[in-house]
Amino acid sequence: MIIGAFIVILIPLKTTDKVITLRKEKDLMAIKETSSDILIAHIIKGIEEVKGKDISILDLRDIENTVCDYFIICNGTSNTQVNAIVNSVQKFVSKSLKDKPWHIEGQDTAEWVLMDYVNVVVHVFQKHIREFYDIEGLWGDAKITEIETNY
Fold first, then answer.
1. CA nearest 111: which of 75, 137, 58?
2. pLDDT tens, position by position, for the chain (151 residues)?
3. pTM of the complete model
């Protein structure tokens, strides 16, 4: 909501609403980026909980005409593990952020499951399907961050 020269945003918290007054549009972008960063952190926790492998974050913000800001890509060793990763991500994000994916595609075969959180899209592959489609290669202009795991 805009009041005079200020932009006021209501951010729902557990028990009360917090009002933030912003003086510049870039402040609004900082809040949006922060919420994406928090979402990404919880998605990665969900993947790591069930030992998802080869986790990558593709930052698409500097590429024109993209459908989202980030891809998170990982793979599992079987369709059972792919479904476990998807369920774990949903559980972590839902419990922590009270958010759910806008759409999920591919759970029937569990070879490539796409979870659309609007600004962040999660791709969970079986390894051979990930190698075949080579999403990282298709989005070669993206900044890629590899997440190291301890398992």
1. 75
2. 444 443 434 333 333 333 333 344 444 444 444 589 999 999 999 999 999 999 999 999 999 999 999 999 999 999 999 999 999 999 999 999 999 999 999 999 999 999 999 999 999 999 999 999 999 999 999 999 999 988 8
3. 0.77
Task: For residue 106, give the nearest of 91, 136, 126 by alpha carbon.
Answer: 126
For the chain, the domains span: 2-147
Cα–Cα distances in angstroms (integers) from residue 54 to residues 27, 28, 62, 68, in the given order: 34, 33, 23, 21
The residue assigned the tokens 């928090």 is 38
Query: Is 2-147 in CATH node 3.30.460.10?
Result: yes
How many CB atoms are located within 10 Å of the residue 11 CB?
10
Residue type (1 letter), 131: E
- Distance of alpha carbon 22 from alpha carbon 2, whole angstroms: 10
- The letter for the amino acid at 23 is R
Contact present, 139 and 60 (Cβ < 8 Å): yes
What three-state secondary structure class fits 62?
Answer: coil
Q: Is residue 18 a contact partner of residue 35, using CB atoms and an 8 Å limit?
A: no
